[in-house]
Structure formats: C-alpha cells, structure tokens
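Tokens in:
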C-alpha cells in the first residue's frame, strides 16, 4: 500500500480516496431519503385528522437544547479531525468521546420528546401529520443512534491500532456522517419545529 505523505493521513492512499468518494455517494443517497421524508411531511403537515397539530405539541425549549447539543457535537468532531491531522491521538479520542456524549444527550432529549408526544395523543396512528412527524424525527434519531455505535467502534480501533491511514480514513468518514446529521437537524429545526410553531 503506497502512502502519499504530502496528503492528510485520511487521504494518503488511493484506497482511502476511493473510500471517501464512495461515502459521498452514500450521503447523496441519504439526502434523497431525507428529501423524500421532508416532502411527505410538508404534504401531510396540515392533515391532523382531529388530532393535535404542531402548535399544540411542539415545545421550543427542549428543541433548542437538542439543537445546541448536536451543533456543539459538530464542532467537537471537527476538533477531533484537526487533532488527528496533527497527530494528537489523545486529543482526538477526547474530542470523539465528547462528540458521542453530546450525541447521547441529544438522543435522551429526543426520546423524552417522543414520550411527551405520545402522552399528548400524538402517535403514529393519530393522523397523517403525526405519522410523518414521528417517521421523520425517528429516522434522524435512528441515524444518530447508529452513529453512537459506529463512533464507539472507531474509538476502540484507534486505541488498539493507533493512528494509521486506515483508522484515520474511518474517523474522517465518520466525521462526514456526523456533520451530515447536523445539517439534517438544522432543516428539521427550521422547517418542522419553527415553522410548526407559527
């Protein structure tokens, strides 16, 4: 395996470059998935079928906390990649752990939010609006949950094998995934919650 030391470690082999390109293709497919969910949500958001609407169930405070947690985790995963590029393994792992803890906090608030919705009568079966709301939020939450397991596996690999072209490549690809989840959340925050509260 030929390593090009003039490139960042995550790009330093031909295979690494192909892996990153392939992941961008995967993210394009993920964009289509969420675009479909958003389109369905906007089509059905006023079809409450006598059940609660967004203005009745949305609470801005927990949503703002979720947003702060997730956007902060985007910043810390960026710091992790920077630490990785300058060879600071311990700092990289620390920022990785902080990122996952912030993600876990986000997930805790989202689960509590789901429980509140269910308590207020907003379930998958209540109406087209609540079904698409739960599906869209749930899909994003499932992606965050997967990211927590994936990020943990990368931390364990880096601790065991150290920084190498392979582990750096996996870490960088994970950071792309995590940033993507943050971008999706910005759309959820802006076009589902803020719009729904108006």
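Residues out:
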């Amino acid at each position: 395996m030929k390593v090009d030391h003039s490139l960042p470690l995550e790009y330093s082999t031909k295979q690494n470059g192909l892996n990153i390109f392939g992941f961008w293709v995967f993210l394009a497919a993920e964009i289509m998935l969420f675009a479909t969910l958003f389109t369905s949500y906007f089509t059905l958001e006023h079809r409450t079928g006598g059940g609660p609407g967004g203005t009745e169930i949305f609470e801005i405070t927990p949503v703002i906390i979720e947003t702060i947690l997730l956007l902060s985790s985007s910043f810390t995963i960026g710091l992790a990649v920077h630490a990785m590029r300058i060879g600071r393994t311990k700092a990289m792992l620390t920022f990785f752990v902080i990122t996952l803890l912030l993600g876990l906090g986000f997930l805790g608030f989202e689960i509590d939010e789901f429980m509140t919705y269910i308590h207020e009568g907003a379930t998958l079966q209540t109406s087209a609006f609540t079904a698409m709301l739960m599906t869209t939020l749930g899909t994003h939450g499932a992606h965050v949950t997967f990211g927590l397991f994936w990020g943990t596996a990368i931390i364990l690999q880096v601790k065991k094998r150290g920084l190498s072209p392979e582990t750096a490549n996996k870490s960088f690809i994970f950071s792309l995934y995590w940033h993507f989840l943050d971008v999706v959340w910005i759309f959820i925050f802006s076009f589902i919650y803020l719009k729904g509260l108006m």
